[in-house]
Amino acid sequence: MSPKISVVTPTYNCAKYIKGCIESVRDQESPVFEHIVVDGASTDGTTEILKTYPHLSWISEPDNGEAEALNKALRKARGDFIGWLNADDIYTPWAVKRFLEEREKHPEYDVYYGICVFINEEGKPTHWAYPYSPITVKTLLRWWQLNLFQPSIFFKRELVERVGYYREDLTYGTDYEYWFRLAASGARFRFVPTVFSKARINRSDGKTATPYHIKAREWLNINMSYQKYVTREERASFWRDFYLVNFLASPELANTKPPNKEAAEGYLLALIKRKAATPGIIEKLSEEYSLGNTKYLALLEIYGQVKDFKKAREMADRYIQRSIQEKKNNLNLPLEKQVKVKRERKKREDTVLLFDAGNIWPITCGTDRVIISDIQALREAGFKVCVFGTTLNYADWSRSKVERFKKELGVEVFTHRSSLSDDSYLSNNTASSVTPSLLYAFEQCVKNIKPKAIVINRSSFYPLLTANSARACISLLRMHAFCALNKAVLDALRPYFPHNEMYDPDAVSDEILKEDFINSIAINLDAAEEEIFCYKNVDKVLTLTKLDKEIVEENVKEADAVALSPYFPINKKENYSGNPIFVASLYPPNVQGYCYFTKKVLPYILRRTSSFSLDVIGTASKRLRSKDGIILRGFVENIDEVYQKASFAVCPLLAGTGLQIKAIEAMSWGLPVVALRGISKALPIVHQENGFIAENSKDFAEYVERLYLDRDLCKKMGERARETIAEKFSCKKVGALFRALIKPTDSEKTYTVTARELLL
User: Fold this and answer.
1) Domains of the chain by range and CATH?
2) 20 to 30 A from 118, CA-CA: which of 6, 536, 667, 711?
3) pTM
């Protein structure tokens, strides 16, 4: 028997949003036992709205705030599990169902928590937070990395009898303190990787608009009361990370970013030493720091000097500001200046260093395919290739993976192992992908191997090229997509394709299924300032297609862009008896393309050819509603077997940047491709020779039907498609282009360097 769910909602003057909250509970795919609303005597018409929902259990009377209202609701609750949903938040339709499914599989847990999506005041998603796992007293200490939000949590009602009700003396940490209490009582937390709720976390009229340092002071006080549940070493580790996070998050620190983790910790210890008045504490700190093993234990005693959160932050800021001023006085630096760097390339080995954040072997996506191609083409051109990776994005750079990587690709591999300090830095510097320790490790690698050129994948990692040792190298930035355009496309599509929902083509607006959809997308160049800066300051921007090259040149006049497509191996194929295919990962433009095909193209085909079937391959399948004429195959372990039997491929995308990897991969297997005019600019399709280019849905249907009914035509056009790929995407040709870009002559390069880089 399924447990009963009680949802409790405290509210005060929230008439604008409460209807959405109530209906999101009422319309759950699995029903809720009861929804209890406690209103604090609102004056904005909230009670009139509550009266229109007879299924609610509600009261309206004055109270002393959210916690008192919650406790009133808890005393009325009769369910087995409690969900706390504020009046301005909403559940996803599947929230309760997915919780119950997880509870049935893992009934031994007491608290189940999922993902929370943040929405703005209009209800449109802005971003989402992936919660930390596992949840224990130890991990709860670091509130800045939790992403544990109350509307996405269900907990056993019996826990209230064990630990009591919410503390009514708290304002900003009511939920935080309660999770501590549950964890300290032995309650077990289970993470469910599903979006449970959407929260208006940044309402301009809500308490979330309160300045961070005010909320953090309450969180810190709560935190300190539960430190008795962890060991002395764990407390020391917390204070180290607490100080380091706030030190690194300081706005002034952006101008003096330490080159590595050790330097940042050194600055931090110097700050505390300067502020600790007692000589004995300073001596102990010096002794601990010099030993290197337990150097952070002294922070426990020193913390007694600066218990106040705001005071500690101000102390750090004053120290940093003084340090910046001293450096500026000594160096007399302008805000930015032109720096000429002479490159003595003749003295450098014929080596190329390639950076990518993830482990790209084995290949799992189109980006991996491009990077592997670059490695193989560089080796074809005679270069020694070294790969630098990092575990920052949780990539698997285990010893076995590294050895396999080296064996399969014939390269040297260097890795940066991230730490908790890196995670803390990134969580408080969301605009940056490069941590001080990553920059330091990369610079040391460049010093050791002295490459002629460095290839950086993705503009977000451009700061690696600012390392002093890297400036003497030819800098190549591999652009997988123009991020500003890509973001504009995704921003336009996300309202129609919310994260973690099922997508029904019939429910999708025709507004986003027009063939000229991409023409309605405007790039926000102001928001793309950092990306444009990167393109201006590298030697070459390597685009995947001529179309991307034109986009860069149109928007970034100073950029030197070169179209350098990856190479694709040619594969033999004789069997054209299978269904046509559409290969699609779970990515909004792919979902849009599927909806376009099934809603606009498929009806034309089925009216005349009722036997038609299209196989949809890839992770998108799990979120798509099937239609007559569509077979959702899902993720396929070995896609080569799919290409081996397929008759042709369709590419019904209306938008997207970069190279359409799967379409070109299909052509390399000898499959003709049908694509729309807009996206065909990124494909080597010659109309009626190796594929078809459609102007509209009717044309698309006609070309698909012709190929479906004539397998000899599929084979004939497929052979031409294979020849096209062999001619334009050969390893030898791509390698020759790399060799031409990495010339062995000395030269000078002028950089625009910011004050931050000069101070570094």
Assistant:
1) 5-225 (3.90.550.10), 231-331 (no CATH), 344-482+529-567+731-760 (3.40.50.2000), 581-729 (3.40.50.2000)
2) 6
3) 0.55
